[in-house]
Amino acid sequence: MAVDTPARIAVLGAGPIGLEAALYARFLGYDVDIYERGNVADNILRWGHVRMFSPFGMNRSTLGLAALRAQDRGYEPPSDDEFLTGLEYADRYLLPLSQTDLLADHLKLGIEVVGVGRPELLKGEEIGTDERIDSDFRILCRDRAGAEFVAAAEVVIDTTGVFGNPNWAGEGGLPAIGEKTVRDRIEYGVPDVLGSARSQYANRKTLVIGAGYSAATTVVGLAKLAEEAPDTHVTWIVRQTNEAEPISPVNDDRLPERAALTVEANRLASGASPNATFKSGTNLHSVKYDEATGKFRVRLAAEGEVGEATAAEFDAIVANVGCRPVNRIYQELQIHECYATGGPMKLAVALQGSSSGDCLTQTTHGPQSLVTPEPDFYILGAKSYGRNPNFLVSIGREQVRDLFTIIGDREDLDLYKTAVSLPSGEVDDQ
Ligand SMILES: Cc1cc2nc3c(=O)[nH]c(=O)nc-3n(C[C@H](O)[C@H](O)[C@H](O)COP(=O)(O)OP(=O)(O)OC[C@H]3O[C@@H](n4cnc5c(N)ncnc54)[C@H](O)[C@@H]3O)c2cc1C
Question: Which of 104, 113, 161, 208 stands the most exposed, by the fewest C-beta atoms within 10 Å?
Fold first, then answer.
């Protein structure tokens, strides 16, 4: 819905897409508040040691570069073809961007958004009508000390991502027996097994669960660790049956980092290393942590064959089983969610109709795919894909451009195109 300046836009989350959305809004003259529960790029920094598979040119915007150059004429961005680690991406682009005059004073760090509603309307009232826009959004926030307060905005852009809200590791997506009790001891992220987390994995037995790139990264890292610490062992389980190659190679992969990871993970799955065991068609049936020995006792079961479950012991478990959106933020609003992905329905339908093996071939699905039944509430970034893991920063940047054609009410509005021709001095705070 078109919204004239100077309206107040609340951006939830200061990941790459939240920052790009806030920047775009500032360029257009909106008042912007960015609420971030931790620090800038918090989720990315949790896997900061991992090298990204998309080159820097796909992960930055022309507007971001223009803002950085306007702030500091000496700013040297990474080259577009560089493959940065998550930490380098944050240090060399996202953090400096957040400190530009356009964004710095608008960042509210350490503020978690608990929920967003309409103060005068309940979820079931004024279904799909414009009456809902007559009252601003009420945003319930909590600071680091636990104190709660309320903020307001005319437009809300939820870019809170999915990382940090992992799926369960048991059969059918439910918790394995005992998983809830030991959740704090299982690693659901991508640990830096060759760096800061080395002592937790070196010369120890680890169970890795999952069939995506995160699991592949963990398995390949552990196998490398075994070259230096020979008693390191990894057991890798995936629930898919008869998977000779757990990571499907992308034909003529344009991303060399991704191609190399795929080849090495599949090589390990084929039994190439005595330090790695691969089991397809296998689920985590139950898990218990033994305080006395400091080990996990698990039962692994072939699909549908719980009676045949095998017992095993591990020092560590890494569950790279994907993430899901936290939808309680908008549960009092009229958001139509996809029953399969938990993402907003319109976009989920468009994604369903366009699925292909390579996430690089994706395009955005146009401004209308971002519209929800709740006027002026939008979900962008990784969260807009729900449980679908194919989201890329480059798609989020396109979503930002698409969204502001609606908010700015100009079909041809494209600040990314305009920014290319901006001399750096013209990008002053507005
Ligand atoms: C190991 C790994 C490698 C990856 N490599 C690539 C790659 O090479 N290329 C690529 O394009 N993508 C890659 N991705 C995906 C990439 O992480 C996402 O595309 C990107 O981070 C999504 O950005 P976002 O801004 O939507 O969400 P996020 O980066 O997840 O940011 C969300 C922000 O919201 C904050 N937040 C969450 N909840 C709240 C709340 N309630 N209140 C306030 N703030 C909140 C978080 O702290 C966080 O700062 C990778 C992901 C992983 C895990």
Answer: 104
Return the exposure string of 329-353: e unless at least 16 CB atoms fall within 10 Å of the residue's CB, then b.
bbebbbbebbeebbbbbbbbeebee
Q: What is the pLDDT of residues 213-247, one digit of tens each?
A: 999 999 999 999 999 999 999 999 999 886 678 99
| pTM given for the model | 0.94
Ligand 1 pocket test target in 163, 321, 328 with most atoms within 8 Å of CB: 163
8-164+323-426 falls under which CATH superfamily? Answer: FAD/NAD(P)-binding domain (3.50.50.60)
CATH code for residues 171-319: 3.50.50.60
User: Is residue 9 within a helix (H) or strand (E), and if so which, with residue range?
Assistant: strand 8-12
Q: Where in the chain is the domain with CATH 3.50.50.60?
A: 8-164+323-426, 171-319
| Terminal-to-terminal C-alpha distance of the chain | 23
When pLDDT is cut at 50, 70 and 90, the band that residue 133 belongs to is confident
